[in-house]
From TrEMBL:
<feature type="domain" description="Kinesin motor">
    <location>
        <begin position="22"/>
        <end position="350"/>
    </location>
</feature>
<dbReference type="GO" id="GO:0000070">
    <property type="term" value="P:mitotic sister chromatid segregation"/>
</dbReference>
<keyword id="KW-0505">Motor protein</keyword>
<dbReference type="GO" id="GO:0005737">
    <property type="term" value="C:cytoplasm"/>
</dbReference>
<dbReference type="GO" id="GO:1990023">
    <property type="term" value="C:mitotic spindle midzone"/>
</dbReference>
<keyword id="KW-0175">Coiled coil</keyword>
<feature type="binding site">
    <location>
        <begin position="112"/>
        <end position="119"/>
    </location>
    <ligand>
        <name>ATP</name>
    </ligand>
</feature>
<comment type="similarity">
    <text>Belongs to the TRAFAC class myosin-kinesin ATPase superfamily. Kinesin family. KIN-8 subfamily.</text>
</comment>
<keyword id="KW-0378">Hydrolase</keyword>
<keyword id="KW-0547">Nucleotide-binding</keyword>
<protein>
    <recommendedName>
        <fullName>Kinesin-like protein</fullName>
    </recommendedName>
</protein>
<dbReference type="GO" id="GO:0005871">
    <property type="term" value="C:kinesin complex"/>
</dbReference>
<dbReference type="GO" id="GO:0008017">
    <property type="term" value="F:microtubule binding"/>
</dbReference>
<dbReference type="GO" id="GO:0005634">
    <property type="term" value="C:nucleus"/>
</dbReference>
<keyword id="KW-0493">Microtubule</keyword>
<dbReference type="GO" id="GO:0007019">
    <property type="term" value="P:microtubule depolymerization"/>
</dbReference>
<dbReference type="GO" id="GO:0005524">
    <property type="term" value="F:ATP binding"/>
</dbReference>
Protein backbone atom coordinates (compact mmCIF):
# COMPACT_ATOMS: atom_id res chain seq x y z
CA UNK A 1 0.00 0.00 0.00
CA UNK A 2 2.90 2.36 0.75
CA UNK A 3 4.17 1.97 -2.77
CA UNK A 4 0.72 2.75 -4.11
CA UNK A 5 0.60 5.91 -2.01
CA UNK A 6 3.90 6.89 -3.50
CA UNK A 7 2.58 6.47 -7.02
CA UNK A 8 -0.48 8.57 -6.22
CA UNK A 9 1.68 11.23 -4.61
CA UNK A 10 3.93 11.35 -7.66
CA UNK A 11 0.93 11.72 -9.92
CA UNK A 12 -0.47 14.49 -7.76
CA UNK A 13 2.76 16.47 -7.63
CA UNK A 14 2.13 19.46 -9.84
CA UNK A 15 4.72 19.74 -12.54
CA UNK A 16 6.23 23.17 -12.70
CA UNK A 17 8.18 25.06 -15.31
CA UNK A 18 10.63 26.20 -12.68
CA UNK A 19 12.08 22.68 -12.39
CA UNK A 20 15.59 22.31 -13.73
CA UNK A 21 16.13 20.48 -17.00
CA UNK A 22 12.49 20.46 -17.86
CA UNK A 23 11.00 20.91 -21.23
CA UNK A 24 7.27 21.16 -20.80
CA UNK A 25 5.58 19.27 -23.62
CA UNK A 26 2.00 19.89 -24.72
CA UNK A 27 -0.11 18.47 -27.53
CA UNK A 28 -2.90 20.25 -29.35
CA UNK A 29 -5.30 18.56 -31.76
CA UNK A 30 -6.93 20.88 -34.26
CA UNK A 31 -10.52 20.47 -35.49
CA UNK A 32 -11.08 18.34 -38.58
CA UNK A 33 -10.59 20.43 -41.74
CA UNK A 34 -13.04 20.69 -44.66
CA UNK A 35 -10.69 18.82 -46.94
CA UNK A 36 -10.53 15.99 -44.41
CA UNK A 37 -14.31 15.62 -44.25
CA UNK A 38 -15.34 11.97 -44.27
CA UNK A 39 -11.95 10.68 -43.16
CA UNK A 40 -11.55 8.61 -40.01
CA UNK A 41 -10.41 10.29 -36.83
CA UNK A 42 -7.32 8.57 -35.41
CA UNK A 43 -6.66 10.78 -32.39
CA UNK A 44 -8.59 10.75 -29.14
CA UNK A 45 -7.94 12.92 -26.10
CA UNK A 46 -8.39 10.49 -23.21
CA UNK A 47 -8.00 12.99 -20.37
CA UNK A 48 -6.21 16.27 -19.65
CA UNK A 49 -2.77 14.74 -20.15
CA UNK A 50 -3.32 11.63 -22.26
CA UNK A 51 -3.85 11.14 -25.96
CA UNK A 52 -4.59 7.88 -27.82
CA UNK A 53 -3.49 7.30 -31.40
CA UNK A 54 -5.19 4.58 -33.48
CA UNK A 55 -3.68 3.00 -36.54
CA UNK A 56 -6.10 1.83 -39.22
CA UNK A 57 -5.49 -0.39 -42.23
CA UNK A 58 -7.57 -1.25 -45.28
CA UNK A 59 -9.77 -4.21 -44.43
CA UNK A 60 -10.95 -5.25 -47.88
CA UNK A 61 -10.96 -4.29 -51.52
CA UNK A 62 -13.47 -1.53 -50.78
CA UNK A 63 -10.80 0.13 -48.62
CA UNK A 64 -12.94 -0.12 -45.55
CA UNK A 65 -10.77 0.56 -42.52
CA UNK A 66 -10.19 -1.60 -39.52
CA UNK A 67 -8.32 -0.75 -36.36
CA UNK A 68 -4.90 -2.43 -36.25
CA UNK A 69 -3.30 -1.12 -33.08
CA UNK A 70 -3.19 1.91 -30.84
CA UNK A 71 -0.94 3.67 -28.38
CA UNK A 72 -1.30 6.01 -25.41
CA UNK A 73 0.96 9.03 -25.03
CA UNK A 74 1.19 11.14 -21.89
CA UNK A 75 2.19 14.82 -21.86
CA UNK A 76 2.07 17.77 -19.47
CA UNK A 77 -1.31 18.58 -21.00
CA UNK A 78 -3.30 17.60 -24.08
CA UNK A 79 -5.64 20.09 -25.72
CA UNK A 80 -8.62 18.82 -27.68
CA UNK A 81 -10.07 20.51 -30.77
CA UNK A 82 -12.41 22.48 -28.53
CA UNK A 83 -9.66 23.96 -26.33
CA UNK A 84 -9.69 27.75 -26.49
CA UNK A 85 -6.67 29.88 -27.31
CA UNK A 86 -6.84 31.29 -23.78
CA UNK A 87 -6.74 27.77 -22.28
CA UNK A 88 -3.71 26.87 -24.36
CA UNK A 89 -1.98 30.12 -23.42
CA UNK A 90 -2.76 29.91 -19.68
CA UNK A 91 -1.63 26.30 -19.34
CA UNK A 92 1.48 26.45 -21.49
CA UNK A 93 2.91 29.96 -21.44
CA UNK A 94 1.58 32.25 -18.70
CA UNK A 95 4.13 30.97 -16.17
CA UNK A 96 6.90 31.90 -18.59
CA UNK A 97 5.60 35.44 -18.92
CA UNK A 98 5.80 35.75 -15.15
CA UNK A 99 9.40 34.55 -15.11
CA UNK A 100 10.35 36.95 -17.93
CA UNK A 101 9.17 39.76 -15.65
CA UNK A 102 11.60 38.38 -13.06
CA UNK A 103 14.41 38.82 -15.59
CA UNK A 104 14.61 35.25 -16.89
CA UNK A 105 14.58 34.11 -20.50
CA UNK A 106 12.14 31.59 -21.88
CA UNK A 107 11.18 29.93 -25.16
CA UNK A 108 7.93 28.52 -26.53
CA UNK A 109 7.87 26.72 -29.83
CA UNK A 110 5.18 25.06 -31.90
CA UNK A 111 6.18 21.89 -33.62
CA UNK A 112 4.32 19.81 -36.19
CA UNK A 113 3.61 19.16 -39.85
CA UNK A 114 2.39 21.85 -42.24
CA UNK A 115 -1.33 22.40 -41.69
CA UNK A 116 -1.31 20.97 -38.15
CA UNK A 117 -2.18 24.30 -36.49
CA UNK A 118 1.16 25.90 -35.54
CA UNK A 119 0.42 29.38 -36.88
CA UNK A 120 -3.12 29.26 -35.49
CA UNK A 121 -1.69 28.41 -32.06
CA UNK A 122 1.06 31.04 -32.15
CA UNK A 123 -0.54 33.95 -34.03
CA UNK A 124 -4.22 33.00 -34.30
CA UNK A 125 -6.80 35.33 -35.81
CA UNK A 126 -8.18 38.76 -34.89
CA UNK A 127 -11.21 37.03 -33.28
CA UNK A 128 -9.12 34.34 -31.57
CA UNK A 129 -5.61 35.65 -31.00
CA UNK A 130 -2.95 33.04 -30.25
CA UNK A 131 -0.11 32.58 -27.78
CA UNK A 132 2.05 35.41 -29.17
CA UNK A 133 -0.67 38.03 -28.77
CA UNK A 134 -2.07 36.67 -25.49
CA UNK A 135 1.44 36.62 -24.00
CA UNK A 136 1.95 40.29 -24.82
CA UNK A 137 -1.52 41.16 -23.54
CA UNK A 138 -0.84 39.35 -20.29
CA UNK A 139 2.57 40.98 -20.03
CA UNK A 140 1.09 44.47 -20.30
CA UNK A 141 -1.63 43.72 -17.79
CA UNK A 142 0.94 42.31 -15.33
CA UNK A 143 3.12 45.39 -15.84
CA UNK A 144 0.13 47.68 -15.24
CA UNK A 145 -0.64 46.10 -11.90
CA UNK A 146 2.99 46.59 -10.87
CA UNK A 147 3.53 50.01 -12.41
CA UNK A 148 4.01 51.58 -8.98
CA UNK A 149 7.32 49.83 -8.51
CA UNK A 150 9.34 51.10 -11.42
CA UNK A 151 9.21 51.32 -15.16
CA UNK A 152 9.16 48.55 -17.69
CA UNK A 153 10.10 48.96 -21.32
CA UNK A 154 8.90 46.37 -23.86
CA UNK A 155 10.56 45.87 -27.22
CA UNK A 156 9.49 43.41 -29.91
CA UNK A 157 11.46 41.95 -32.78
CA UNK A 158 10.00 39.60 -35.36
CA UNK A 159 12.20 37.73 -37.78
CA UNK A 160 12.25 34.67 -39.99
CA UNK A 161 14.89 32.08 -40.66
CA UNK A 162 14.46 30.69 -44.16
CA UNK A 163 17.12 28.52 -45.82
CA UNK A 164 19.62 29.68 -43.20
CA UNK A 165 18.94 33.33 -44.04
CA UNK A 166 17.68 35.72 -41.37
CA UNK A 167 15.16 38.40 -42.37
CA UNK A 168 13.43 41.17 -40.47
CA UNK A 169 9.64 40.67 -40.67
CA UNK A 170 8.78 44.12 -39.27
CA UNK A 171 10.83 46.09 -41.81
CA UNK A 172 11.76 43.60 -44.50
CA UNK A 173 14.85 44.21 -46.52
CA UNK A 174 18.18 42.62 -47.07
CA UNK A 175 19.18 39.51 -45.09
CA UNK A 176 20.55 40.26 -41.63
CA UNK A 177 24.01 39.27 -40.44
CA UNK A 178 24.35 37.58 -37.04
CA UNK A 179 27.05 39.15 -34.88
CA UNK A 180 28.39 38.21 -31.50
CA UNK A 181 28.58 41.09 -29.05
CA UNK A 182 28.68 41.53 -25.27
CA UNK A 183 25.00 40.65 -24.94
CA UNK A 184 25.28 37.54 -27.05
CA UNK A 185 24.33 36.87 -30.64
CA UNK A 186 22.41 39.70 -32.28
CA UNK A 187 20.99 40.18 -35.76
CA UNK A 188 22.61 43.43 -36.90
CA UNK A 189 20.01 46.07 -37.84
CA UNK A 190 16.99 44.07 -36.64
CA UNK A 191 14.05 46.36 -35.79
CA UNK A 192 13.41 46.66 -32.06
CA UNK A 193 9.82 47.86 -31.98
CA UNK A 194 8.89 49.70 -28.79
CA UNK A 195 5.43 48.46 -27.85
CA UNK A 196 3.14 50.47 -25.58
CA UNK A 197 -0.07 48.45 -25.78
CA UNK A 198 -1.55 45.20 -27.06
CA UNK A 199 -3.77 46.87 -29.67
CA UNK A 200 -1.00 47.51 -32.17
CA UNK A 201 0.58 44.06 -31.81
CA UNK A 202 -1.86 41.85 -33.75
CA UNK A 203 -1.69 44.07 -36.84
CA UNK A 204 2.09 44.24 -36.59
CA UNK A 205 2.42 40.45 -36.40
CA UNK A 206 -0.11 39.82 -39.17
CA UNK A 207 1.79 42.17 -41.45
CA UNK A 208 4.98 40.41 -40.39
CA UNK A 209 3.51 37.05 -41.32
CA UNK A 210 2.60 38.37 -44.77
CA UNK A 211 6.28 39.20 -45.14
CA UNK A 212 7.30 35.57 -44.58
CA UNK A 213 8.99 33.90 -47.53
CA UNK A 214 6.66 31.98 -49.80
CA UNK A 215 7.90 28.93 -51.63
CA UNK A 216 7.55 29.15 -55.41
CA UNK A 217 5.78 25.78 -55.53
CA UNK A 218 3.22 26.81 -52.93
CA UNK A 219 2.21 30.15 -54.35
CA UNK A 220 -0.60 30.95 -51.93
CA UNK A 221 0.81 29.38 -48.84
CA UNK A 222 3.21 30.73 -46.29
CA UNK A 223 6.37 28.73 -46.62
CA UNK A 224 6.44 25.49 -44.71
CA UNK A 225 10.20 25.89 -44.42
CA UNK A 226 10.31 29.27 -42.72
CA UNK A 227 10.67 29.69 -38.96
CA UNK A 228 9.09 32.84 -37.51
CA UNK A 229 10.62 34.09 -34.27
CA UNK A 230 9.00 36.75 -32.10
CA UNK A 231 11.24 38.03 -29.33
CA UNK A 232 9.76 40.08 -26.51
CA UNK A 233 12.34 41.95 -24.45
CA UNK A 234 11.26 43.33 -21.09
CA UNK A 235 13.52 45.84 -19.37
CA UNK A 236 12.93 46.97 -15.86
CA UNK A 237 14.67 49.82 -14.09
CA UNK A 238 14.06 51.06 -10.59
CA UNK A 239 16.00 52.58 -7.70
CA UNK A 240 16.13 50.47 -4.58
CA UNK A 241 16.11 51.79 -0.99
CA UNK A 242 19.84 52.55 -1.20
CA UNK A 243 19.21 54.49 -4.44
CA UNK A 244 21.07 51.92 -6.54
CA UNK A 245 19.62 51.36 -9.96
CA UNK A 246 18.25 47.83 -10.33
CA UNK A 247 18.25 46.73 -13.94
CA UNK A 248 16.55 43.56 -15.10
CA UNK A 249 16.11 42.20 -18.60
CA UNK A 250 14.02 39.18 -19.53
CA UNK A 251 13.44 37.82 -22.99
CA UNK A 252 10.62 35.62 -24.23
CA UNK A 253 11.05 33.89 -27.60
CA UNK A 254 7.89 32.63 -29.30
CA UNK A 255 8.54 30.49 -32.35
CA UNK A 256 6.32 29.27 -35.16
CA UNK A 257 8.60 26.54 -36.51
CA UNK A 258 8.83 25.28 -40.08
CA UNK A 259 6.77 22.19 -40.94
CA UNK A 260 8.40 19.11 -39.45
CA UNK A 261 7.39 16.79 -42.31
CA UNK A 262 10.65 17.02 -44.20
CA UNK A 263 12.86 16.83 -41.15
CA UNK A 264 11.04 13.73 -40.02
CA UNK A 265 10.73 12.00 -43.37
CA UNK A 266 10.16 8.31 -42.79
CA UNK A 267 10.91 6.67 -46.09
CA UNK A 268 14.44 6.26 -47.33
CA UNK A 269 13.93 8.19 -50.54
CA UNK A 270 12.76 11.36 -48.81
CA UNK A 271 15.48 10.93 -46.26
CA UNK A 272 18.13 10.85 -48.94
CA UNK A 273 16.89 14.15 -50.28
CA UNK A 274 17.44 15.54 -46.78
CA UNK A 275 21.14 15.00 -47.21
CA UNK A 276 21.05 17.39 -50.13
CA UNK A 277 20.03 21.00 -50.22
CA UNK A 278 16.62 20.25 -48.80
CA UNK A 279 17.67 19.68 -45.23
CA UNK A 280 16.12 22.05 -42.76
CA UNK A 281 19.27 22.66 -40.87
CA UNK A 282 17.72 24.94 -38.27
CA UNK A 283 15.00 22.45 -37.35
CA UNK A 284 17.44 19.57 -36.93
CA UNK A 285 19.92 21.74 -35.05
CA UNK A 286 17.18 22.80 -32.65
CA UNK A 287 16.38 19.19 -31.82
CA UNK A 288 20.10 18.37 -31.34
CA UNK A 289 20.48 21.33 -28.97
CA UNK A 290 17.47 20.24 -26.97
CA UNK A 291 18.79 16.68 -26.81
CA UNK A 292 22.17 17.92 -25.60
CA UNK A 293 20.61 20.25 -23.04
CA UNK A 294 18.35 17.73 -21.39
CA UNK A 295 21.14 15.17 -21.35
CA UNK A 296 23.23 17.68 -19.42
CA UNK A 297 25.96 17.86 -22.06
CA UNK A 298 28.69 20.46 -21.59
CA UNK A 299 28.83 21.28 -25.28
CA UNK A 300 25.57 22.49 -26.79
CA UNK A 301 25.86 22.74 -30.59
CA UNK A 302 24.23 26.18 -30.93
CA UNK A 303 26.55 27.11 -33.77
CA UNK A 304 25.05 24.54 -36.13
CA UNK A 305 22.29 26.78 -37.45
CA UNK A 306 20.98 30.33 -37.57
CA UNK A 307 17.94 29.52 -35.44
CA UNK A 308 19.96 27.94 -32.63
CA UNK A 309 22.51 30.78 -32.70
CA UNK A 310 19.66 33.24 -32.21
CA UNK A 311 18.32 31.18 -29.31
CA UNK A 312 21.69 30.74 -27.61
CA UNK A 313 20.65 32.79 -24.56
CA UNK A 314 17.09 31.49 -24.56
CA UNK A 315 17.51 27.72 -24.39
CA UNK A 316 19.11 25.94 -21.46
CA UNK A 317 20.77 27.47 -18.41
CA UNK A 318 18.12 29.09 -16.26
CA UNK A 319 15.72 29.39 -19.23
CA UNK A 320 12.38 27.66 -19.43
CA UNK A 321 11.37 25.84 -22.56
CA UNK A 322 7.88 24.89 -23.72
CA UNK A 323 7.06 22.75 -26.73
CA UNK A 324 3.58 22.60 -28.19
CA UNK A 325 3.15 19.71 -30.62
CA UNK A 326 0.36 20.37 -33.12
CA UNK A 327 -1.47 17.49 -34.80
CA UNK A 328 -4.42 16.89 -37.12
CA UNK A 329 -7.10 14.44 -35.93
CA UNK A 330 -7.53 12.87 -39.38
CA UNK A 331 -6.30 9.45 -40.40
CA UNK A 332 -5.06 11.10 -43.63
CA UNK A 333 -2.24 12.62 -41.56
CA UNK A 334 -1.57 9.50 -39.50
CA UNK A 335 2.12 9.28 -40.45
CA UNK A 336 2.86 12.91 -39.57
CA UNK A 337 0.89 12.67 -36.36
CA UNK A 338 2.73 9.54 -35.30
CA UNK A 339 6.10 11.19 -35.99
CA UNK A 340 5.13 14.33 -34.11
CA UNK A 341 3.88 12.40 -31.07
CA UNK A 342 6.99 10.21 -31.01
CA UNK A 343 9.24 13.23 -31.20
CA UNK A 344 7.32 15.05 -28.46
CA UNK A 345 7.36 11.89 -26.35
CA UNK A 346 11.11 11.66 -26.75
CA UNK A 347 11.64 15.26 -25.64
CA UNK A 348 9.78 14.28 -22.47
CA UNK A 349 11.62 10.96 -22.00
CA UNK A 350 15.14 12.37 -22.21
CA UNK A 351 14.26 14.77 -19.47
CA UNK A 352 13.43 11.92 -17.11
CA UNK A 353 16.63 10.05 -17.89
CA UNK A 354 18.67 13.23 -17.49
CA UNK A 355 17.44 13.65 -13.95
CA UNK A 356 18.48 10.22 -12.68
CA UNK A 357 21.71 9.56 -14.56
CA UNK A 358 24.14 11.22 -16.87
CA UNK A 359 23.71 8.62 -19.55
CA UNK A 360 24.98 9.19 -23.03
CA UNK A 361 21.95 8.57 -25.20
CA UNK A 362 22.98 9.76 -28.62
CA UNK A 363 26.02 11.59 -29.92
CA UNK A 364 25.67 15.32 -30.43
CA UNK A 365 25.70 15.81 -34.20
CA UNK A 366 28.34 18.21 -35.42
CA UNK A 367 27.65 18.13 -39.12
CA UNK A 368 24.68 17.95 -41.40
CA UNK A 369 25.39 14.33 -42.21
CA UNK A 370 25.55 13.54 -38.49
CA UNK A 371 22.19 15.22 -38.15
CA UNK A 372 20.72 13.02 -40.85
CA UNK A 373 22.16 10.01 -39.01
CA UNK A 374 20.54 11.28 -35.85
CA UNK A 375 17.17 11.42 -37.54
CA UNK A 376 17.64 7.83 -38.72
CA UNK A 377 18.64 6.71 -35.25
CA UNK A 378 15.73 8.45 -33.58
CA UNK A 379 13.36 6.87 -36.04
CA UNK A 380 14.80 3.42 -35.37
CA UNK A 381 14.42 4.01 -31.66
CA UNK A 382 10.87 5.17 -32.06
CA UNK A 383 9.76 2.18 -34.03
P1 LIG B 1 0.45 25.33 -39.76
O1 LIG B 1 0.87 26.70 -39.36
O2 LIG B 1 0.88 24.27 -38.80
O3 LIG B 1 0.83 24.99 -41.16
P2 LIG B 1 -2.21 26.46 -39.55
O4 LIG B 1 -2.09 27.07 -38.20
O5 LIG B 1 -2.09 27.39 -40.71
O6 LIG B 1 -1.16 25.26 -39.72
O7 LIG B 1 -3.57 25.65 -39.57
C1 LIG B 1 -4.14 25.10 -40.75
C2 LIG B 1 -5.63 25.48 -40.83
O8 LIG B 1 -6.34 24.95 -39.73
C3 LIG B 1 -5.82 26.98 -40.79
O9 LIG B 1 -6.90 27.29 -41.66
C4 LIG B 1 -6.22 27.25 -39.36
O10 LIG B 1 -7.03 28.39 -39.22
C5 LIG B 1 -6.96 25.99 -38.97
N1 LIG B 1 -6.79 25.68 -37.54
C6 LIG B 1 -5.66 25.16 -36.99
N2 LIG B 1 -5.83 24.95 -35.67
C7 LIG B 1 -7.08 25.34 -35.36
C8 LIG B 1 -7.86 25.35 -34.16
N3 LIG B 1 -7.35 24.93 -32.97
N4 LIG B 1 -9.14 25.81 -34.24
C9 LIG B 1 -9.64 26.23 -35.40
N5 LIG B 1 -8.97 26.23 -36.58
C10 LIG B 1 -7.70 25.79 -36.57
MG1 LIG C 1 2.05 28.04 -40.49
Amino acid sequence: PKQEDNVVAKKKKKLSLVDENRIMVFVRVRPIAKKEAGSRCCVRIVNHCEVYLTEFAAQDDYLRLKRVRGRHFTFDACFSDSATQQEVYSTSTSELVESVLQGKNGTVFCYGATGAGKTYTMLGTVESPGVMVLAIKDLFSKIRTRSCDGNHVVHLSYLEVYNETVRDLISPGRPLVLREDKQGIVAAGLTQYRAYSTDEVMALLQQGNRNRTTEPTRANETSSRSHAVLQVMVEYRVRDAAMNIVHRVGKLSLIDLAGSERALATDQRTLRSLEGANINRSLLALSSCINALVEGKKHIPYRNSKLTQLLKDSLGGTCNTVMIANISPSNLSFGETQNTLHWADRAKEIRKKASDANEDLLPVPETEIDQVKLVLELQKENR
